[in-house]
């Protein structure tokens, strides 16, 4: 009975060891399988990265090669391909051409300006009182001396009358004192009165004479103040919006005044130009008055022409620009104070220079050039030396003769020797206009 458990214990221990061994084998197989799969995935990922890098490298190489070929073979380039003439047996390329011409060309400097009134006056009362009349219409053109407003003059008229009366009183006393002086002068010779009485009479006359002179000054002052009650315009110009209505009490200390008068005939324009143009402008002003052309903000309408008056005596260091002022007659009334405008300052005229349309000028590695139309309807690439250039016209200093035709449209399909079918531009399209310094 007691030996049976002892026999069963070894068997239980062996069974447990067997199960533990099987579990260890299963875990070992799972770990090996997992490690094997991770290594495979890693190798595949690395291969994909290597292949992607190779693809990118080939793409970059192809782009570089294509860019180089385009730079060499593109129309209008100065590469090796353009050194040899293209065959002329292909179809003619349609283009537009224009002839160069020799003529006088004005040179302009362009700037942005602001219109200012030639004179601006704020009409303020010079005496206090009630405003009893407004003698103008808002926006009216007026002349110097025109009545603008009237202040109640009764108080100032009374003051003038009082000063006049005071003068009359003092003049009567002066007349009496002179009679006494004459009387005493005759009596002192006969020793009927003393010399002291004569001197007193003389002093009385002198005193009354000074008093009469003071009365005359008081009358003049009262007359001036009475004149100030009628407010008149000191300049020719245009009145703005009135600041005070009839019936209000106005004072000499009022800040806004009654109305503002601006002189717009003539009118001024203040504009700025770069500091590096100042010396050229000053030198041109020494030779002759410089013409100023004022254009609308969009540059489509010429508003007026005038003359440059001055270059400011200092340059703004924050903007490196100089301020200039021009005067214009403004007869059409198109310019208003505060208006922003485009300004063109004519500083020179180039006499009889060769000009071509600006769109005929091409840019290459060796500088500016143009395709010149030859007599056999082929083109050659001609290097140019340019002078003044604007958006519409270019001045050619060398490289082109008067009367030669240049291609203005269709250059992107051309190479030296290309056969073309040229259509000449109209006179309006090919006509050069004023230029500005490049």
Structural overview:
With about 450 residues, this protein is an alpha+beta fold. About 35% of the residues lie in helices and about 35% in strands. The protein has helices at about 5-75, 155-190, 195-230, 280-285, 425-430; strands at about 95-100, 100-125, 130-135, 140, 145-150, 230, 235-240, 250, 260-275, 290-295, 300-315, 320-330, 340-355, 360-365, 365-375, 380-385, 385-390, 395-400, 405-410, 420-425.
Quick structural overview:
By secondary structure, the chain is of the alpha+beta class. Helix content is 35%, strand content 34%.
User: Which secondary-structure class do the elements indicate?
Assistant: alpha+beta
Q: Could you state the order of secondary-structure elements as H and E?
A: HEEEEEHHEEEEHEEEEEEEEEEEH
Number of helices: 5
Please estimate the helix content. Answer: 25-40%
CATH architecture assignment of the largest domain: Beta Barrel
Distance between the termini: 125 Å
**Main β sheet profile:** 6 strands, mixed
Features:
438 residues; alpha+beta; conserved putative lor/sdh protein from methanococcus maripaludis s2 fold; Elongation Factor Tu (Ef-tu), domain 3; 4 domains; six-stranded mixed β-sheet; 5 helices; 20 strands; 35% helix; 34% strand; elongated; disordered N terminus
């Amino acid at each position: 009975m007691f030996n049976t458990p002892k026999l069963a214990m070894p068997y239980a221990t062996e069974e447990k060891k067997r199960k533990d061994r099987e579990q260890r084998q299963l875990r070992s197989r799972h770990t090996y399988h997992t490690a094997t799969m991770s290594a495979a995935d890693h190798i595949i990922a690395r291969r994909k990265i290597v292949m992607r890098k190779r693809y990118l490298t080939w793409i970059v190489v192809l782009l570089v090669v294509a860019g180089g070929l385009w730079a060499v073979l593109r129309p209008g380039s100065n590469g090796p391909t353009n050194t040899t003439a293209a065959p002329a047996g292909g179809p003619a390329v349609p283009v537009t051409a224009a002839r160069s011409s020799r003529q006088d060309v004005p040179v302009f400097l362009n700037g942005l300006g602001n219109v200012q009134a030639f004179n601006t006056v704020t009409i303020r009362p010079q005496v206090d009182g009630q405003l009893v009349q407004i003698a103008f219409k808002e926006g009216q053109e007026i002349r110097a001396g025109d009545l603008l407003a009237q202040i109640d003059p009764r108080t100032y008229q009374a003051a003038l009358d009082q000063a006049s009366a005071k003068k009359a009183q003092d003049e009567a006393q002066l007349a009496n004192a002179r009679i006494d002086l004459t009387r005493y002068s005759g009596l002192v010779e006969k020793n009927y009165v003393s010399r002291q009485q004569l001197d007193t009479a003389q002093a009385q006359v002198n005193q009354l004479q000074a008093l009469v002179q003071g009365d005359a000054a008081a009358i003049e002052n009262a007359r001036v103040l009475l004149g100030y009650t009628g407010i008149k315009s000191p300049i020719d110009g245009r009145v703005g919006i009135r600041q005070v209505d009839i019936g209000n009490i106005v004072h000499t200390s009022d800040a806004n005044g009654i109305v503002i008068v601006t002189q717009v005939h003539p009118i001024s324009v203040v504009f700025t130009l770069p500091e590096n143009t100042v010396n050229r402008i000053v030198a041109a002003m020494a030779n002759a008055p410089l013409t100023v052309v004022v254009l609308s903000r969009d540059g489509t309408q010429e508003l007026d022409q005038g003359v440059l008056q001055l270059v400011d005596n200092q340059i703004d260091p924050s903007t490196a620009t100089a301020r200039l002022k021009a005067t214009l007659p403004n007869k059409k009334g198109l310019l208003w104070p505060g208006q922003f405008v485009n300004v063109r300052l004519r500083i020179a005229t180039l006499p009889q220079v060769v000009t071509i349309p600006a769109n005929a000028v091409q840019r290459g590695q060796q500088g500016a050039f143009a395709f010149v139309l030859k007599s056999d309807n082929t083109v050659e690439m001609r290097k140019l030396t340019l002078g003044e250039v604007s958006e519409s016209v270019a001045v050619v200093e060398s490289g082109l003769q008067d009367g030669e035709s240049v291609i203005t449209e269709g250059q992107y399909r051309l190479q030296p020797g290309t056969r073309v079918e040229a259509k000449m531009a109209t006179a309006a399209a090919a006509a050069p206009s004023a230029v500005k310094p490049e």
